[in-house]
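stuck on this:

***
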Amino acid sequence: MESINIEIAYALPEEQVILSLEVPDDCTVEDAIKRSGVLDTYPQIDLSTDKVGIFGKMCKLTAGLRNKDRVEIYRKLIADPKESRRQKAEMERKKALQDGTKK
């Protein structure tokens, strides 16, 4: 059986981890994550709910891997990005109105 070299990436707000490892060429995303040891280091990772991807493209845990793939484990979002942008735009609009009336 041949082997391939891959990376497992996981990021927190204050740190990023990229683990390099060699796995069998028939390894799935889930197998690679388990082999990497990242689940022992970061017990908050829950593969039943957290999304995963290869180079930024979401995939299933059963997806196969190719040489030099980077498997990424995505954290849950704390805030809805659309809502955050809407709130920021509203604050900027209010600030612009205030600045306009103070002149």
Q: What stands out?
A: Helices lie at 29-36, 38-41, 81-102. DSSP finds three helices and five strands in the chain. The chain has one domain: 3-77.
